[in-house]
């Protein structure tokens, strides 16, 4: 496990919280961290996804996840 606290993370999280009307800034800390690391952010929080999904294309809805089939067509043991 690696703990990360990029510079300006809290400020970016607050900006995202205000922009999207998120009353809980902890959700937007995850968004700010994914944005900073330039990686996808997968969520099962439907309300969060509906609020930000169109504006932040790197946010993904977990319900839309389709696993890649394993070679041979069988899932791993």
Strand order of the largest sheet: 1-2
Could you tell me the radius of gyration in angstroms? 15 Å
Largest sheet: 2 strands, parallel
Strand content: 5-15%
Secondary-structure content class: mainly alpha
Instruction: Please tell me what the overall shape is.
Output: globular
Stretches where pLDDT is under 50 for at least 5 consecutive residues are: none
Report the mean per-residue pLDDT as an integer.
89
Number of domains: 1
What's the helical proportion of residues?
A: 40-55%
Order of helices and strands: HHEHE
Termini distance? 25 Å
Number of strands: 2
Task: Count up the helices.
Answer: 3
Keywords for this entry:
single chain; 77 residues; mainly alpha; 3 helices; 42% helix; 8% strand; globular
Compact summary:
With 77 residues, this protein is mainly alpha-helical. The protein has helices at residues 9-20, 25-37, 46-52, and strands spanning 41-43, 59-61.
Secondary-structure map:
Elements lengths: L8 H12 L4 H13 L3 E3 L2 H7 L6 E3 L16
Parallel strand pairs: 1-2
């Amino acid at each position: 496990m690696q703990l990360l606290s990029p510079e300006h993370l809290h400020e970016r999280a607050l900006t995202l919280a205000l922009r999207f009307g998120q009353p809980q800034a902890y959700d937007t800390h995850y968004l700010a961290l994914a944005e900073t690391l330039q990686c996808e952010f997968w969520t099962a929080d439907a309300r969060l996804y509906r609020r930000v999904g169109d504006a932040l294309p790197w946010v993904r809805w977990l319900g839309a996840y389709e696993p890649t089939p394993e070679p041979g067509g069988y899932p791993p043991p």
